[in-house]
Design brief:
Layout: E1 4-10, H1 16-29, E2 34-38, H2 44-54, H3 63-87, E3 91-95, H4 98-108, H5 113-124, E4 131-136, H6 139-152, H7 165-181, E5 186-190, H8 195-212
Parallel strand pairs: 1-3, 1-4, 2-3, 4-5
This protein binds P1-(5'-adenosyl)P5-(5'-thymidyl)pentaphosphate (T5A).
P1-(5'-adenosyl)P5-(5'-thymidyl)pentaphosphate (T5A) binds near residues 14 and 146.
């Protein structure tokens, strides 16, 4: 693929959306062609699947149904948006991607990693991120930020946000383990500070990697 694929990961409310938006704006200012997108979602069909996944009407969803829906949303997202943009040489920035599935569905829900890895590689047609940022934060603070943001927009907590504190602590632990497993790709960034400081660190890493790769080539 000619493009560069950057993903943002972490617990609820850790600042992924904020940082993905800031990075996209910065790169566009530098003259890069950028696609900013999110998971679950990013296409009409994937956004419809997102509604089901996050709806409080479906608290009894079986973990197998859950993982298959996240993958279904991703399959459409890859074929309609991510793959075409990477083929055109764009920088794709996604707010969550496959690492969310490995952490939430495998590490936390307990679904077999190898089975999911195989299904995921079928889903993504082998596309994986070049750079991943895990925004690390105490779950108590992440949930506090998410709840206060929801209140500001008159939104209720969704099905995943309503999970226990223990669940969110395990999510954080899962991300730190993923980062140990893929140290070259995954950068753990402390989100427990001002968003501008977080942004500066991210811009520095992306700038360095783009120039190391001579991008655009
Ligand atoms: N999921 C997803 C799976 O289980 N498997 C999968 O395969 C995939 C793809 C998605 C849910 O689906 C799960 C994971 C999730 O549970 P979502 O609505 O997309 O749900 O939720 P999140 O991705 O968790 O996103 P949130 O919108 O809740 O949080 P963000 O994007 O991390 O945080 P953000 O940027 O919206 O910030 C939250 C608030 O904090 C402020 C912001 O202004 C905002 O008000 N903020 C800061 N405040 C202080 N200091 C900072 N540094 C701040 N940065 C941001």
């Amino acid at each position: 693929m000619k493009g560069i694929f950057i993903t943002f990961e972490g617990i609820e409310g850790c600042g992924k959306t904020t940082q993905a938006h800031l990075l996209a704006g910065y790169l566009e200012e530098q003259g890069y062609k950028v696609l900013k997108t999110r998971e679950p979602g990013g296409t009409e069909i994937s956004e419809a699947v997102r509604e089901i996944l996050l709806s409080n009407d479906f608290v009894k969803m079986h973990p197998h149904t859950e993982v298959l829906l996240y993958l279904a949303s991703r399959a459409q997202h890859i074929s309609d948006k991510i793959k075409p943009a990477l083929e055109k040489g764009m920088i794709v920035i996604s707010d969550r991607f496959s690492d969310s599935t490995f952490v939430y569905q495998c590490y936390v829900r307990g679904i077999d990693y190898q089975i999911v890895e195989e299904m995921n590689s079928f889903t993504t047609e082998g596309i994986s991120p070049d750079i991943t940022f895990v925004l690390d934060l105490e779950p108590e603070e992440g949930l506090r930020r998410a709840v206060s943001r929801n209140q500001k927009h008159s939104r209720k907590e969704d099905r995943m946000e309503k999970e226990s504190l223990e669940f969110h602590q395990k999510v954080r632990e899962g991300y730190l383990k993923m980062a140990e497993r893929y140290p070259d790709r995954i950068h753990v960034i402390s989100s427990n500070r001002d968003k501008t400081e977080v942004q500066e660190e991210i811009k520095g890493i992306v700038g360095r990697i783009l120039s190391q790769r001579g991008f655009p080539g």
